[in-house]
């Protein structure tokens, strides 16, 4: 028998243990190939798909993440395999196999698995790449679908990259073989595990760290974000680690002392085994919890970014279309009735219209408390307090109350503006600035970049000296289905020299924002899916490395009278706790992260968060059912043959 045939025989005999690892590797290769096939697609490289340039850099970033993750995942998997095969290596050493030959055997197995994983992964990638391109065409709003292509550079990069990755890790892990003595290898599966021990100080550290992290997340705001965000990450990570390595042992010991619970039916067996399983799998559960929290938090963040961007669009563009005319009845820019007719015929009728009269202010000077005054060159518009409040009420914003001799200004100034001076139709004005507005109630045009609001009495006096043909009139229009009204609004016939007196940017800005957020969500979805598959695979893989040990334990329990149904109940309970415990911890972390995001962005994502969490739980449940069924079959085969 050659080394190659021996390696293949080992893989066939232990295929159930290899299957989770193999499928996860295939999935990593599949995702990597699909991303690289788009990046190196001829139409993308040659610039035939202009929109693709927006996501190419993001996908390159995803490739780096997948590569780093694949390295860590394969490294862990190989290490776990070596630990479970110590008795096998001991037997081979007893038959005369040297350390160098053992390393050679492991490298052959890794190469065979690498070739198989890469071949299946690239094959599935080619099969599903057309579907992937179709989805990207929708997000990129490409007129012609992206044609199928299998770029040789993508195939070569994926195949060679993952092959080198597998071989490098195989060499690294094989160097660890042979350090243990022969007796230790044979006793590896029969070593007593000892008592479950924990440190009260580390348990306290876990609780204090999590409590501190959660408290800081609740009080997080834009002012303390920069020095608290990293601290929250560190404390929650430390707390989560010791939660699984120390607090879980304390909890098991506590339940074991509750005799009424511990001696009830099969609880004694469940808790006795579960304590060691939690201790042995503490690091895996810790990593899965953190990955779960990252997945859920990232999903909420993508959604919140979209909500926040839409709010900012409303803040800068309160109306879908705004027109500024000079002269009460001039209509030089566009006739209001013509505008309404055009939008109605395009399927976007005007649902709300607002008109505001004002006066033009020139030669503006802004006075600051530190003496660093500003000469504001553009002319701007002055409106009354009543008109501002009318628009503010319609938009659900705060109203203002001004005293005679005072004015309100939009924008944020540092140091703040104390006084504003200027000229209205040759008459000098000088007002103390008593209110600074954070929100705008009017779309900006060339004539109202900084709208000045004054008290009604002052405004009437000034406007009385302004002829009707010199007065400014601002029109704001809201339309039906404004999100898709961009093309119709663009077709409004405006004189080129008066284009600056029209603001119709809301729909276009929203479309750009939506496109960016959808692409971000699309890319994030694949990365989240990769992490989700990885987290479940880590647990599933770790379970099957302990299958032989569990088979021996349950064979002993069967000999003393335990039924198959009771064994199934014990295994399903233990697997459920192992699967759902990190999911629960990750969900709690994510909920506090959402609370922190609410404080930062001033928006609520709770409803969306629970939807994402629900989807996550459903997917975890499907994974749990498949894993428990597969594990129970493997366990039954082992116990039936005993």
Strand order of the largest sheet: 2-4-8-5-7-6
Report the portion of residues in β strands.
5-15%
Query: What is the CA-atom radius of gyration, in angstroms?
Result: 34 Å
Number of helices: 21
Instruction: Determine the structural class based on helices, strands and strand pairing.
Output: alpha+beta
Mean pLDDT, all residues? 80
Number of beta-strand segments: 10
Question: Which descriptor suits the 3D outline?
Answer: elongated
Distance between the termini: 29 Å
Low-confidence stretches: none
Counting copies of identical and different chains, the oligomeric state is single chain
Largest sheet: 6 strands, mixed, barrel
Instruction: State the helicity in percent bands.
Output: 55-70%
Give the key terms.
single chain; alpha+beta; 6-stranded mixed β-barrel; 642 residues
Summary, kept brief:
The chain is α+β, with helices and mostly antiparallel strands.
Structure characterization notes:
It contains 21 helices and 10 strands. The protein is an alpha+beta fold. A 6-stranded mixed barrel has the order 2-4-8-5-7-6. Helix 1 crosses helix 6 (99-140), helix 2 (15-39) runs antiparallel to helix 7 and helix 4 (53-84) packs parallel to helix 18 (506-545). The longest helix has 42 residues, at 99-140. The protein is elongated. The model has no long low-confidence stretch (mean pLDDT 80).
């Amino acid at each position: 028998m050659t080394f190659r045939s021996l390696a293949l025989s080992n893989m066939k005999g232990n295929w159930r243990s290899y299957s989770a690892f193999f499928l996860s590797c295939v999935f990593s290769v599949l995702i990597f190939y699909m991303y690289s096939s788009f990046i190196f697609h001829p139409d993308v490289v040659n610039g035939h798909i202009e929109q693709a340039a927006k996501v190419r850099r993001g996908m390159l970033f995803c490739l780096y993440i997948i590569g780093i993750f694949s390295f860590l995942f394969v490294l862990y998997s190989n290490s776990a395999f070596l630990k479970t095969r110590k008795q096998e290596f001991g037997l081979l050493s007893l038959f005369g196999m040297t350390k160098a030959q053992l390393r050679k055997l492991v490298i052959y197995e890794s190469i065979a698995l690498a070739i198989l994983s890469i071949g299946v992964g690239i094959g599935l990638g080619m099969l599903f790449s057309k579907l992937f391109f179709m989805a990207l065409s929708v997000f990129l709003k490409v007129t012609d679908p992206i044609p199928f292509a299998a770029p040789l550079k993508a195939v070569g990069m994926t195949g060679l990259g993952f092959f080198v990755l597998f071989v490098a890790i195989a060499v690294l892990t094989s160097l660890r073989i042979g350090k243990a003595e022969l007796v230790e290898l044979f006793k590896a599966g029969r070593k007593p595990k000892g008592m479950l021990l924990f440190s009260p100080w580390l348990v306290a550290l876990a609780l204090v760290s999590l409590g501190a992290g959660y408290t800081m997340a609740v009080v997080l705001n834009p002012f303390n974000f920069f020095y608290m965000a990293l601290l929250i990450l560190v404390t929650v990570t430390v707390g989560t680690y010791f939660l699984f390595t120390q607090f879980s042992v304390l909890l098991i010991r506590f339940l074991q002392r509750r005799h009424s619970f511990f001696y009830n039916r099969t609880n004694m067996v469940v808790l006795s085994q579960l304590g060691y399983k939690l201790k042995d799998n503490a690091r895996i559960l810790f990593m899965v919890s953190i990955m779960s929290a990252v997945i859920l938090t990232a999903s909420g963040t993508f959604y919140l970014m979209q909500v926040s961007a839409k709010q900012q669009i409303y803040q800068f563009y309160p109306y879908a279309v705004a027109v500024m005319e000079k002269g009460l009845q001039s209509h030089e820019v566009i006739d209001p009735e013509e505008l309404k007719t055009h939008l109605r015929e395009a399927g976007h009728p005007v649902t709300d219209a607002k008109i505001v009269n004002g006066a033009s202010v020139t030669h503006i000077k802004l006075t600051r408390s530190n003496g660093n005054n500003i000469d504001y060159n553009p002319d701007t518009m002055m409106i009354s307090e009543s008109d501002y409040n009318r628009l503010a009420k319609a938009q659900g914003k705060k109203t203002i109350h001004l005293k005679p001799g005072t004015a309100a200004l939009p924008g944020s100034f540092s140091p703040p503006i104390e006084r504003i001076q200027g000229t209205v139709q040759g008459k000098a004005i000088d007002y103390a600035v008593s209110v600074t507005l954070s929100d705008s109630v009017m779309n900006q045009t060339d004539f109202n970049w900084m709208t000045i609001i004054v008290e009604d009495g002052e405004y009437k006096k000034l406007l009385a000296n302004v002829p009707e043909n010199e007065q400014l009139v601002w029109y704001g229009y809201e339309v039906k289905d404004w999100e898709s009204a961009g093309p119709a609004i663009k077709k409004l016939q405006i004189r080129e020299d008066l284009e600056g007196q029209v603001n119709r940017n809301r729909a276009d800005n929203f479309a750009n924002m939506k496109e960016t957020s959808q692409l971000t969500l699309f890319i994030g979805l694949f990365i989240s899916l990769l992490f989700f598959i990885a987290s479940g695979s880590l647990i599933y893989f770790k379970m099957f490395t302990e299958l032989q040990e569990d088979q021996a334990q349950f064979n002993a329990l069967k000999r003393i009278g335990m039924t198959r149904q009771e064994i199934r109940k014990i295994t399903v309970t233990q697997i459920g706790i192992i699967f759902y415990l990190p999911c629960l911890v990750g969900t709690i972390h994510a909920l506090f992260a959402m609370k922190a995001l609410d404080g930062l962005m001033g928006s609520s994502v709770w409803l969306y968060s629970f939807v994402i969490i629900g989807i996550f739980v459903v997917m975890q449940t499907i994974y749990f059912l498949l894993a428990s069924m597969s594990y129970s079959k493997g366990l039954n085969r082992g116990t039936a043959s005993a």
